[in-house]
Design goal:
The chain is α/β, with parallel strands linked by helices. It has one domain (about 1-45, about 65-105, about 145-155, about 165-260): Acetylglutamate kinase-like (Carbamate kinase, 3-Layer(aba) Sandwich), CATH 3.40.1160.10. Helix content is about 35%, strand content about 25%. The chain contains 8 helices and 16 strands. The strands form 5 sheets. An 8-stranded mixed sheet has the order 5-10-2-1-13-15-16-14, sandwiched between helices. The protein has a two-stranded antiparallel ribbon with strand order 3-4. The protein has a two-stranded antiparallel ribbon with strand order 6-9. A hairpin with a 5-residue loop joins strand 3 and strand 4. The longest helix has 25 residues, at about 65-90. The relative contact order is 0.17.
């Protein structure tokens, strides 16, 4: 089993990724983002996103009801169905799902995001949370009958309400349940960089014991991503590859060891 997480940046080569996946002869699941598409949609609607940074230094999008609607359009709608379309064109019998569908990804809503505003500690409450479990029966039903699940956000909370979450955390709960031997994370960079401004500063190997130190080196989205990678190993991952999703053969290159291999 392989879990393939496709980033949501505008430069990701979806065609190349799906063509590579069509050559794989073992079971796999796709988890995808759509942040570039969501941001464009939000701007077109005159409802730009709001980013907040918690007191612990992790950045996230403030998820009000308008943002959830945008996610349903961008993530669960256009991006999801275009990936399913590409899969079908390349002989992959894919089924597109967001976490709401069949309660495929279930979570718990956050109690609030702790932030500093005007020098004071405040709690921001929104429609965001953490995934806690997957509907394994549904995923096994699809996988055992030759279908490839294509998963994305939003997910469903304990009150059966749509909530935003990090796809890196969705991958974690999938890994905890399905025990994939490899997790591939395709991003708009060659892998984990020593200097985020220099694409030649790729770090090709990171031992698991170094993950916490590497997490402290970075900020913003990459800081959250490295935390998610560290948690993957806590739930039984044996190999995680952070690789470039922009190349001609992103998946083939990742499996051949290009990018950053953590094991």
């Amino acid at each position: 089993m392989i879990i393939v997480k496709i980033g949501g940046g505008a430069g990701i080569n979806l065609q190349g990724i799906i063509q590579d996946l069509a050559q794989i002869r073992e079971k796999f699941i796709i988890v995808h983002g759509a942040n570039a598409l969501r941001d464009k949609l939000a701007e077109d609607l005159g409802q730009p996103k709001k980013v907040v940074t918690s007191v612990s230094g992790y950045s996230s999008v403030y998820s009000d009801e308008r943002l959830i609607d945008q996610m349903m359009m961008a993530y669960a709608g256009a991006r999801n169905k275009r990936i399913v379309e590409l899969c079908q064109q390349n002989g992959i019998n894919a089924v597109g799902l967001c976490g709401l569908d069949g309660k495929s990804i279930q979570g718990v809503r956050n109690k609030g995001i702790r932030v500093y505003r005007e020098g004071k500690l405040k709690i921001l409450r929104d429609y965001s949370g953490k995934p806690e479990s997957v509907n394994r029966g549904l995923l096994d039903l699809l996988l055992d009958h030759g279908y490839v699940p294509v998963l994305t956000v939003p997910i469903i909370d304990e009150q059966n309400t749509a909530i935003n979450t990090e796809n890196d955390d969705v991958v974690r709960v999938l890994q905890k349940t399905l025990r994939a031997h490899t997790v591939i994370n395709l991003i708009e960079a060659p892998g984990f960089l020593e200097n985020k401004e220099d694409e030649t500063s790729l770090i090709r190997r990171i031992p698991v014991v170094e993950l916490e130190r590497r997490e402290q080196q970075v900020d913003g989205r990459m800081k959250r991503k490295m935390l998610a990678v560290r948690k993957l190993f806590e739930v039984g991952a044996s190999r995680v590859i952070i690789a470039d999703g922009r190349g001609e053969h992103p998946v083939t290159d990742a499996l051949s060891g290009k990018g950053t291999v953590i094991e």
